[in-house]
Write a structure and sequence with these properties.
This protein has 13 helices and 26 strands. It has 580 residues and is an alpha+beta fold. This is C2 domain-containing protein. Belongs to the copine family.
Length: 580
């Protein structure tokens, strides 16, 4: 799934352009480049999903014939309001309708997409009206149900059957009367899988730096119908290179629209402050790029010299070449879910003394009597509410670190549930309850060490791999400070990179987390162990909670958007194919 990926492990670090040669890996963004792209409208990865509906054993509300059912699909917004998405056609005289009308929607892994389905019996007098014009309050209500899109796509056959209930009972009464069943089938659009692989190079780029050569990278964008330029892909940064050849990138046909649609390819000189300098640009469709490859010729870049209706362009000596061009069907994140893979959630919480006395309101661990979650609770809830749908048993390993249990030494990995034999709790609420209980049963201490909890998570992932289980593990570490075992943590991460494991780190509080970003390899150099071994892929994503809590992008979206690509990177690394 995704709109652009590269073929280098860890995703072509955008600073330096180095990486381990591990074919077919997704592209990992650099912080400065990503901020630049997001400011211009770049969004996360997604797949197009087509929903089909059918029902069985509906109520018969007509006297002389069977019901004439129509289904209505809604999305449930964050404020609880319903937004109508589509209506099916009316199926005449049927209690077991199979509607022909499909609805295509974008599936975003990193968000919870709540859906509501309602079924109505359409009165005979309205049969000749366009379904869009029907007043639903004038129709007989047959029942409703709800689910998340994730609940559908995680089924092996991507089909979910649910009971239809009355509106009053739908809100949560224990003994709701059932009024038939609704089945939702999800199919991933083939355009989500059709991918163009491009290997691009440039020649004779102009220098934008005073004392060195430029550090070029490419941004590929499309123009929407309204004229807005939206970035869809980028390359890595090549340092000090005026004739760069970038690693291959993959563009999804679905995001471009068609091979005839024009693309804007811009070449920038990377600057660490995020203010990248335009070296030159070009506008070509995929068909044009395919012809350039076939002919073995280049196309000159240009740079705008005047803006407005009379825009003029200066043609440069610099040229863009297409070294390779191919189209292929790529396995997607949803293919692996259908193959039976699950995402197993794990969490580790920082109990070091720098968090402050939990009994005082200024503590990061303070439990507000009003029910307002603290930063730790927020991170658990926001990440957990997404990942829980991808874990069938919802038994989550949960640890604490940096605290002293009653009458014991400081522990850097203790079971949050207080048990000495097992680490799992049941559900997200189980994590929350164990967290609050631990605050009353341990003394905050220190220092901040990540190595032990990463090793514990890696041990579980390693056992799963040995047992050939179809599981991929996600460890959430929430911390308020900079770690003191940096090299030991690097060693643990280099070892863990071989395993089905990703690590999300959320920094809470006002600490300076610059050193923490060393662990996030797409924000710096590749991780290297004490023995000189380099991590085969980047498995860490780090974000300070304060950086995203006031914007439109939540901490969940910032952290989770990369997970599908990391899972695909692991599958390609292990050469695992979802043979259905």
């Amino acid at each position: 799934m995704g709109n652009c990926c590269s073929d280098v492990a860890g995703g072509q670090s955008a600073v330096g352009g180095t990486g381990v040669n591990q074919g077919n890996q997704p592209n990992a963004p650099n912080e400065a480049v990503d901020a630049f792209l997001k400011s211009r409208g770049y969004q996360g990865l997604y797949s197009q999903i087509e929903l089909s509906l059918s029902a069985t054993s509906l109520r018969d509300r007509d006297v002389l014939s069977k019901s004439d059912p129509m289904a209505v699909l809604y999305s449930k917004e964050k404020d609880g309001s319903l937004k109508e998405l589509t209506r099916t056609e009316v199926v005449l005289n049927s209690l077991n309708p199979k509607w022909i009308t499909k609805y295509t929607m974008a599936y975003y892994f990193e968000t919870v997409q709540n859906l509501v389905f309602r079924v109505y019996d359409i009165d005979t007098q309205f049969h000749n009206q366009d379904v869009k014009m029907l007043k639903l309050e004038e129709q007989d209500f047959l029942g409703e149900t709800s689910c998340t899109l994730a609940q559908i796509v995680t089924k092996s056959d991507r089909s979910l059957t649910m009971d239809l209930v009355c509106g009053e009972q739908f809100s949560g009464q224990a003994h709701a009367r059932k009024f038939g069943k609704l089945t939702i089938f999800a199919e991933e659009s083939i355009s989500s899988k059709t991918t163009v692989e491009l290997k691009l190079r440039c020649s004779e780029l102009e220098s934008k730096d005073l004392f060195s050569k430029s550090d070029p990278f490419l941004v590929v964008s499309k123009t929407t119908e309204s004229g807005i330029v939206v970035p869809i892909c980028k390359t890595e940064v090549m340092k000090n290179d005026h004739s760069p050849t970038w690693k291959p990138v993959f563009l999804k046909i679905q995001q471009i629209g068609s091979k005839e649609n024009p693309l804007i390819i811009e070449c920038y000189d990377f600057n660490s402050n995020g203010k990248h300098s335009l070296i030159g640009k070009i506008q070509k469709s995929l068909l044009d790029l395919e012809k350039l490859h076939s002919a073995g010729t280049g196309a000159n870049l240009f740079i705008p010299t005047a803006m407005g209706p009379k825009q003029e362009n200066k043609v440069l000596k610099s040229q863009l070449f297409v070294e390779s061009y191919s189209e292929k069907i790529q396995y997607t994140f949803l293919d692996y879910l259908a193959f039976g893979y699950e995402l197993n959630f794990m969490v580790a919480i920082d109990f070091t003394a720098s968090n402050g006395n939990p009994r005082l309101p200024d503590s990061l661990h303070y439990i507000d009597p009003s029910g307002r979650p603290n930063a730790y609770q927020r991170a658990i809830l926001e990440v957990g509410e997404v990942l829980q749908f991808y874990d069938s048993d919802k038994h989550f390993p949960a640890w604490g670190f940096g605290a002293r249990p009653i009458d014991g030494p400081v522990s850097h990995c203790f079971n949050l549930n207080g048990s000495s034999t097992y680490c799992e709790v049941e559900g997200i609420q189980g994590i929350m309850m164990a967290y609050i209980s631990a605050l009353h049963n341990v003394s905050l201490a220190g220092p901040t060490l990540f190595g032990p909890v990463i090793t514990s998570a890696a041990h579980i992932a390693s056992q799963s791999l040995t047992n050939s289980e179809r599981k991929y593990f996600v460890l959430l570490i929430i911390t308020d400070g900079v770690i003191t075992d940096l090299q030991e943590t690097k060693d643990a991460l280099v070892q863990a990179a071989d395993l089905p494991l990703s690590i999300l780190i959320v920094g809470v509080g006002g600490a300076d987390f610059k050193e923490m970003e060393i662990l996030d390899a797409d924000k710096g150099e590749k991780l290297e162990s004490t023995t000189g071994r380099v991590a085969v892929r980047d498995i860490v994503q780090f974000v300070p909670l304060r950086d995203v809590q006031y914007g439109d992008v939540s901490v969940v979206q910032s952290l989770l958007a990369e997970l599908p690509s990391q899972l695909l990177e692991y599958m390609r690394f292990r050469k695992i194919q979802p043979t259905l």
